[in-house]
Amino acid sequence: MTLDSSKHVNVDMSSPRGIANAQKMGLIQSNLTDIIATAYIHETSNIFLEVNRKAKCFTIIRHPIHRAISLFYYLQRKARFSPKLGSKAYQHMTIEEYAKGRFCEENRMTRLLTNEKEKSLESYHLDMAIDFLKNKCVTGIYDDFSRSMRRFRNFFQWNQQNEGCDAYLIEGEINANNHDEIKVGSDVWNLFKENNIYDLKLYYTAKELFANQTIFG
Q1: pTM to 2 decimals?
Q2: Are residues 96 and 114 in the same domain?
């Protein structure tokens, strides 16, 4: 239990090994948790199969170029101010070098939703990712964070006393990782665009879904 009286289960859902351990411990059977936060959707879904339980995914989609740019500045700041935790490679790297390099994000969301981690993506991967969002997710949009959180709260019938938590998250997102803007259409912008062409299409589909899911608030 945290200082604000919210309860958390002490399991690691941020890695396949942690998820496998949670499965061995019987996380789902324990009924100790209502929400699981993880980037490993497919690995996590497997822990529901043996207990015949269903889960509903919710996610907040951010414009992939803004996301990739923000990630670069986060990694660079981490490398400069937390050398033990951050990779030294980012300390003096320019954003153009990052966009051209092998560490740059490349259709991360499409890969996450289709569980295709290594192979080159094809158009059918985008179709799979869109189908996942349409049929298995309540979709939020980063640029409308407050409304997205309200929609999740209504859909999942979360306790209204958690609104303080929502406000904390919203304020954190607004103030997080400030940096200079990259001009749309600039050389650097276009480098990120080339790396994330499928994620861009997925993002605009997600915006349409968000606009059409008004029944949830």
Answers
A1: 0.84
A2: yes
